[in-house]
Amino acid sequence: MRLFLAVELEPELRRLLHEATVPLRALVPGAGWVAEDRLHLTLKFLGEQPDTLVPQLTAAMNEIAERHWPVPMRLRGVGAFPNLRRPRVVWVGIEPAPKLELLQHDVEERCAALGLEVEGKPFRPHLTIGRLRGTEKRESLRELARTARGIRFRADTDVLAIALMHSKLTPSGPRYERLAEARLRSA
């Protein structure tokens, strides 16, 4: 099973985000744009794992969730990896915040205790909204960069739960299924 741990977004926030990025999708329609219902924050990509790991991951998520109160998350602006001049992944940024970084660190640490590989890169929270194929025309990429810089999307939300997701690859793109959810502590 292809698995990842994520923060799912509320439907209204996904809708607003999708609407705000319409100009980008119009400029490069052939890119791999993420469908509105699949927008999420990945806390840890686990890749192919045996289905026997699901109960252990679910227990780990519950342990983590018991140690965290809801985490504020601030979405701000549009950018790209490696950058807007040579975009491969287009994203909506999430302001770095200690509580969010601690949540992700706990996810990483608990997964390592289960024998899963530790991510060697620092956590850079973002919502992937598209992947470019590398065949786009230079003019389209310049216009994409200019338009992305002009999108002033801002939204505040709270992380209330961690989800264990199963990603099924299909010819029309990945399909996500939530296998488990662990709610963070509440007052």
Could you give a short description of this structure?
31% of the residues lie in helices and 34% in strands. The protein is α+β, with helices and mostly antiparallel strands and 187 residues long.
The helix/strand class is: alpha+beta
Number of helices: 5
CATH arch. level architecture:
Alpha-Beta Complex
- Quick one: CATH class? Alpha Beta
Give the strand line-up of the largest sheet.
2-6-5-4-7
Q: Total strand count, please?
A: 9
Give the C-alpha Rg: 17 Å
CATH topology, anyone?
Cyclic Phosphodiesterase, Chain: A
Structure characterization notes:
- A hairpin with a 7-residue loop joins strand 4 (71-81) and strand 5 (89-94).
- The protein has one domain (2-183): Cyclic phosphodiesterase (Cyclic Phosphodiesterase, Chain: A), CATH 3.90.1140.10.
- The mean pLDDT is 95.
- The longest helix is centred in the middle third of the chain and has 16 residues, at 98-113.
- The chain contains 5 helices and 9 strands; from the N terminus they run E-H-H-E-E-H-E-E-H-E-H-E-E-E.
- The termini are far apart.
- The strands form 2 sheets. A 5-stranded antiparallel β-sheet has the order 2-6-5-4-7. Strands 3-1-8-9 form a 4-stranded antiparallel β-sheet.
- By secondary structure, it is of the alpha+beta class.
- It is globular and about 50 Å long.
